[in-house]
Amino acid sequence: MQDLVARQKLQCGCLVEDPTGADVDKCLCWQIEEPLSRIGDPSGNVDLSKKAEAAWARCSSSLKTHNENVVKAWNEEIDALLVFVSIHAGLFSAVLTAFNVAILPEISADEPPDSSIAAIWINTLWFFSLVFSLAGASVGIVVRQWLRQFVTPTPYDPKCSACIHYLRWDLGVIPWHLPLILDILPVCLQLAVILFLVGLVGLLWTLNNVVAGIISTIVAMLFILAIYTTLLPIWEPYCPYKSLQALMAC
Fold this sequence. Notes:
- The chain is mainly α.
- It is built from eight helices and two strands, in the order αββααααααα.
- It has a two-stranded antiparallel sheet.
- This is DUF6535 domain-containing protein.
- The chain crosses the membrane at residues 81-104, 124-143, 184-205, 211-235.
């Protein structure tokens, strides 16, 4: 592990500047460790050795705090998504059950009447909505398992702990796009909501035009708001309405 630490370039957050004003490409921990290796006998400089140990301890503590805060925020986001999925699944089940009691005999016939064509499309939209919702929940559960593994306790030695953080974060989380996967989960649930609302509006138009017109207006306003907040950052870079879909549009 020590050889691995020596071979890897590790930035722990305690970057300092040279007295001449030039930037130094090594953190304080490594600047303290290098003189010890040149001395050949670290025991000959006890004060410097203690400073190195203290620097690595601060480095390890800072990285541990960073990891815990990041994982806590991600877990809270996943928990919120799972709560939404449970509500959506319950609503979907109730609406779809009541709807299919009267419609299922028609859409299952060999030659369904024209009125059941709308029922087929409504069922298709709603089942797509359910699939997106459950897919988001399933991936969210798997991601929680990944995050649990990410914060698995590391060795007590601060230098080894910092190196393990580098392996898990710089060579694991970032290159394998874990933050992007977490950003995609809300998009899946938003697609589920859109498909459900479109199917609901289609159902209402087959029942009552007045009710359908009112609900369609409300749904259209929601869609316009979603499109507006997605495209606004293109013209206003400092707009706080930043999301994955907004960043993709930019």
